[in-house]
């Protein structure tokens, strides 16, 4: 069956949400053809106004349509417009290219009576069925991010699939964890020709052996043989790797803005957060693993103590978990404040850690708050951040395009830290494998100036830890 499908010509019917999700999806189907029902164009027309990312993406799709039609001849409208990528995409999207077909005729509706054809989704199903009947030699597939629409399509005998082009993984278990456990025989196989040296107060080792092929730069290595060996891969060349002995932030003398790491993963995270050579850090973990607290502590230490950065900027996607409470009064920062409860909670923890017993820490909280700017993600386009410590909270709710928009805002001297839990996604049509956070982790894996750490151990309270296990 699959081999027959591979040999047959393919026609993909695109749902509206595919073009909204990725405007360049038009050029991502290689030599295969694309069919756009008229109802999709109607839905695009209804959503083109406004300043939201959805409206911007729709306007970009419309510009692609306009350019394709301008470069096509009159007969191509009915016989298929060649999907030639525009100049700004030409390096990424290369021939062969398929054709774009707009619905130019009314197709017969052959849906069950329980599915009236006046609904947009049902209209798309009817058109797909009609295309299957009209073109029996062509493999027709409906591409949509709407799960319910894919279910209805399957019931009607229509092949339906999700849009996978920006999906880096098929299974979340394959996502880069950021660490690698050394086996018991590691030093027997890799320690014979090992050399070590010190540089700028840091200890380095050069090792070679068969396990090096499983490492990438800035992978954290640890051993459970009782030696408490913890290091970070800094460089890989041919058959040997240079690893650096990590700094132990669990020791009281190595506090970061009054905070110590409580476990191995937190210690590795602080090594990355405090490293000026690391420009991009991603921290993934469940509630109570310390993502926000560690990030704020490291940021404030480098803004106030070492003055490496000018200020901290914190932003997040404003996706409500419950019912939307509507518009909020005030300035941009005042509107964002209700979404930043985690920031206020962690500032309270940091203030308590820095003040003496029985002292009021309210004044210190206000001082720390002044070093942090809360910004809305809606106004990030076109900005460039210079010497800033940028925190993107709840990054699992970003799409890959939104993540690209945010990270490309970084100017010289700026560090970006992405925090999130891929098991708590609130944005419609996003999954663990298509989240912008997963996308960024996989794309930046192995770059010398990026690092990732998965935090697994909760440190909030015994109640929270138990709740995670049983609820």
From TrEMBL:
Residues 10-151 form the PIN domain. InterPro entries: P-loop_NTPase (IPR027417), PhoH (IPR003714), PhoH2-like (IPR051451), PIN-like_dom_sf (IPR029060), PIN_dom (IPR002716). GO terms for cellular component: cytosol. Pfam families: PhoH, PIN_4. The keyword Cytoplasm does not apply. Transmembrane segments: none annotated. GO terms for molecular function: ATP binding. Keywords: ATP-binding, Nucleotide-binding. It comes from the Bacteria. In the N-terminal section; belongs to the PINc/VapC protein family. PANTHER family: PIN DOMAIN-CONTAINING PROTEIN, PROTEIN PHOH. This is PhoH family protein. The lineage of its organism: Bacteria, Pseudomonadati, Pseudomonadota, Gammaproteobacteria, Candidatus Berkiellales.
């Amino acid at each position: 069956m699959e081999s027959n499908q591979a040999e047959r010509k393919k026609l993909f019917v695109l749902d509206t949400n595919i073009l909204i999700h990725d405007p360049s999806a038009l050029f991502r189907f290689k030599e295969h053809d694309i069919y756009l029902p008229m109802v999709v164009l109607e839905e695009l027309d209804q959503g083109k106004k406004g300043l939201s990312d959805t409206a911007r993406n729709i306007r970009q799709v419309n510009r692609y349509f306009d350019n394709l039609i301008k470069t096509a001849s009159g007969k191509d409208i009915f016989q298929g417009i060649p999907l030639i990528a525009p100049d700004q995409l030409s390096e990424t999207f290369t021939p062969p290219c398929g054709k774009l077909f707009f619905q130019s005729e009314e197709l017969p509706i052959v849906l069950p009576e329980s599915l009236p054809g006046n609904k947009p989704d049902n209209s798309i199903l009817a058109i797909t069925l009609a295309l299957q009947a009209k073109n029996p030699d062509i493999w027709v597939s409906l591409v949509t991010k709407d799960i319910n629409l894919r279910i209805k399509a399957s019931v009607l005998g229509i092949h339906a699939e999700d849009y996978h082009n920006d999906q880096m993984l098929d299974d979340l278990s394959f996502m880069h964890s950021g660490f690698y456990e050394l086996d018991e025989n590691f030093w027997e196989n890799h320690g014979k020709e090992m050399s070590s040296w010190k540089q700028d107060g840091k200890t380095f080792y050069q090792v070679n052996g068969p396990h090096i092929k499983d490492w990438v730069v800035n992978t954290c290595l640890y051993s459970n043989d009782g030696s408490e060996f913890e290091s970070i891969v800094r460089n890989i060349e041919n058959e040997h790797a240079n690893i650096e002995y990590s700094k132990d932030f669990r020791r009281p003398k190595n506090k970061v803005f009054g905070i110590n790491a409580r476990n191995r993963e937190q210690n590795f995270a602080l090594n990355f957060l405090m490293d000026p050579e690391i420009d991009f850090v991603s921290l993934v973990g469940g509630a109570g693993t310390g993502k926000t607290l560690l990030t704020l502590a490291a940021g404030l230490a480098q803004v106030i103590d070492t003055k490496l950065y000018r200020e901290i900027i914190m932003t997040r996607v404003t996706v409500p978990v419950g019912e939307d409470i509507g518009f909020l009064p005030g300035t941009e920062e005042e509107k964002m404040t209700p979404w930043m409860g985690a920031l206020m909670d962690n500032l309270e923890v940091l203030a308590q850690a820095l003040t003496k017993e029985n002292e009021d820490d309210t004044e210190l909280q206000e001082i720390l708050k002044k070093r942090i700017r809360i910004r809305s993600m809606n106004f990030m386009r076109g900005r460039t951040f210079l010497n800033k410590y940028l925190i993107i909270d709840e990054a699992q709710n970003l799409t890959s395009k939104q993540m690209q928009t945010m990270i490309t805002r970084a100017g010289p001297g700026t560090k970006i830290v992405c925090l999130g839990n891929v098991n708590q996604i609130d944005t419609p049509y996003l999954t663990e494998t298509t989240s912008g956070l997963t996308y960024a982790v996989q794309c930046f894996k192995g770059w010398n100036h990026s690092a990732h750490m998965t935090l697994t151990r909760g440190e909030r309270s015994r109640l929270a830890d138990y709740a995670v296990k049983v609820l």
